[in-house]
Amino acid sequence: TKDPEFGQNLDFHRAMQISKDKMSTRIIKGRDFYKFLERSGEVDVAFCLGNTPNVLVAAATSVNTGLDELEIANALTSMRLTKATSVDLLIPANCEIVLEGRVCMNERDTEGPFIDLTETYDTVRQEPVFEVKKITHRKDPIWQALLPGALEHKVLMGMPREPTIFKKVTEAGVECIDVNINPGGSSWLHAIVKINKKHEDDGRKAILAAFEGHKSCKHVFVVDQDINIY
């Protein structure tokens, strides 16, 4: 989607079909898409399905508002963009299927029940509705679905938090060597931080910084540089 001030934004959203051309769409309060929708009331969107790994990783990464995640995707692997056919948005040219339309803040419907990241049922909510206006696709397209709670979901949730933890630990003055958001916490709730301890309080600093780098984390384990965190 796109905002007049901050430009284009790329991220993941869960959607549940409720009629021939409408879906209730999970939009988390406080995220960029929610901010754009709150400012405008309704926004044009393009749901892109069947993307390359660089696009998936970029879309899963949390960056400052105003930074287009497609730039990150292009930095990972050079890619070609094209214009959507009915909305003013740039999209990956080689994605398989594109659903174009609008999301309205004031039109809501039931979203769920779905399995969440921890493989337990998420709360059923009243979420904004996405109205599909046009569908485009490649010849013989592949419908790629990220199954809730499955491996792709876990990797794309947890892995992008590893560099944010690494950055915060380093900024705290601790020599951070590596970070692993491990499967023991559903690839989201547990972090293992490997450091080169030089001062007595480096471990404490690393723990506090790790929680700052990943605010949903519940357990942080700090280990010395001789430990294999994988």
Automatic annotation (TrEMBL):
Which segments does the entry list as coiled coil? none
Every copy of the 3-octaprenyl-4-hydroxybenzoate carboxy-lyase-like C-terminal domain together lies at: 155-230
Task: Tell me the GO molecular function terms.
Answer: carboxy-lyase activity
A Pfam family hit: UbiD_C
GO cellular component terms attached to this protein's record: cytoplasm
Domain named 3-octaprenyl-4-hydroxybenzoate carboxy-lyase-like Rift-related: residues: 1-149
Q: Which family does it belong to?
A: Belongs to the UbiD family.
Protein name per Swiss-Prot or TrEMBL: UbiD family decarboxylase
